[in-house]
Amino acid sequence: MTALSPKAHYDFDSVLQENHWTLVLCLFGICTAAKVLMFPAYRSTDFDVHLHWKALTLNLNHTSDWYFDDSFVSTVHTLDYPPSFAFMEYMWSNNYLTTWLRNHHWLDESCLALKESSSTRHTDHSVSCVAFMRTTVLISELVFWLAAYVWARLAASSSSHTPGASEASVSSSSSGDSPVSARGIHKNKFSWGLFLLLSLNPAILWLDHVHFQYNGFLLGILLLSVACLWRGLEAQQNTRSFMCWHLAAAILYAALLTFKHLYLMLAPWYFAYLLRKFCFIKNDEKVRFSVQRFLLLGSVTVATLVIPFYPFLSAPQLYQISQRLFPFGRGLVHDYWAGNIWALYMAFQKVVPKLPTDISPFRVAMILLASLLPGCWGAWKAGSTKNLKDAQLKMLQSFFYSALASFITAYHVHEKAIVTTLLPMTIWAMITTTTATTTTQQTDRHRGLLLFRTQAFALTGLLPLLFPATELLLKLTTLGAYLLLMFHFLEPAAAADSCFDWKRGNFLDACMTARQQVFAVVLVLIVLVFVLEVLPISLFGRFEFVPLALTSVVVASGLVLSYVEILFSVIFE
């Protein structure tokens, strides 16, 4: 009897890399099917807002009426996004397929009919109307999946250009150990770790496919813009590809501003980075400012900004749009305080009544500009850094710092704005951790620990948006699964316990080990979720606001700690 030959070793990582495109399509199909099953889920009033905008752009004959018409709506439903978003709403409601669906009664006529906002509630819409609206979100989210795929490829390419990481992989492979950069990136083709952390972020699921918005579409444009800057760093300065990548980044960002003006907070960062990297040319060891490049950059940016506004260029139209886009009368904070310094201020105000009841928008603007200056400094340093990897990581770090600074200090911030920070921060932490060399792996894993803390607090701050009890299981399971996914890829508890450095701002490391920090964060979140979701509201009597206020204060404390750590890193590293 002959002995059976042993089975050939099955290299699962190679399968993931060689078939990554097919597997991405499968993952997209599974996620899309799951989101379709969530069509009947809770919908916020944002559903009615976007539905009205589609009806408004479809039924009003002239674009000049879009920003002036208040006859069918209350002020909460008036069009308060820039023109490109209004044109996108028009495209959703006025195209061949939508018209065909309406003519053949697959989509009821009342869905896109103008009506008074008080005449319908978000629970009164037909099944076909809900399906139509949810489908527009699914289709627009293709931009976000494209951006996640692009960054997964760029992260893998970055790993292959890291000599230290390659040496570590070779040495550890020869000794039988797994390479330092094995988690998430393998054979320099596709970073599955980064792709999963981006595409499966529960914030996008909650905000777009339950609460109802188009954040995935907008954030996809933003991530593609930053990806163009990343590719621009890899190109030689005086080549055509260098010019094209930076101009493409500027065009994408300018186009994004015409979709949603709240990304204006990142304009100082873009200006500082593009000014240093694109407009200063190095010739014969001398750096000189190029007026031609500056004018070219300014021309394409201004043209991209002006084109969508062309139908609204009259003075009354522009004034009306400005009033809609910047309604400072809404107050310093939202009804549910976003987890920033103003949430802490409002809490202190309850304890110290002598504090001013409100702060003027001008003072907040000054604080915001001051907080954005370190990000501009970091962008300038990134544009002048010669080492490719250092320049790329500094660019990402200063970028998400600027996003976080605007969330922490801006006027009337919504809690949803934190997602603009989380996604680029995920890219930065994943690339830093997975390309760590043998000598820096323990230190670099502190980026993973920082991301874990920030994501945990930020995502918890979004839980109150899905307040119905029917969404509790969805919230907790997706949050827990995502935190476990981050823990697997970033290994935050494996960070070194003795690498405190005040220049890095990691002050928690002076008193707590990495494992203790992870345990403390999880414990705080468990207690917070118990108070917010389990305890009956009647238990608090007339202090029914306590669970939401406690959530805001705890989340704000965690995010401010992360902000301080990132601030020190941007300034001193």
Describe the model:
The protein is an all-alpha fold. The protein has helices at 12-18, 20-37, 45-59, 83-93, 96-103, 127-140, 142-160, 163-174, 192-199, 202-211, 215-234, 240-257, 267-279, 291-309, 315-325, 341-351, 361-384, 388-409, 419-434, 441-462, 472-490, 514-534, 546-572; strands spanning 185-186, 190-191, 280-283, 286-289. The protein has a two-stranded antiparallel sheet with strand order 1-2. The chain has a two-stranded antiparallel ribbon with strand order 3-4. The relative contact order is 0.09. Residues 1-9 and 163-186 have low confidence and may be disordered.
Biggest sheet, in brief? Answer: 2 strands, antiparallel
Give the terminus-to-terminus CA distance.
67 Å
Strand order of the largest sheet: 1-2
Structural class: mainly alpha
Average pLDDT across residues?
A: 85
Shape: globular
Counting DSSP E segments of at least 2 residues, the number of strands comes to 4
Q: Report the portion of residues in β strands.
A: under 5%
Order of helices and strands: HHHHHHHHEEHHHHHEEHHHHHHHHHH
Low-confidence stretches: 1-9, 163-186
Helix share of residues?
55-70%
Radius of gyration, in Å, reads 25 Å
How many alpha or pi helices?
Answer: 23
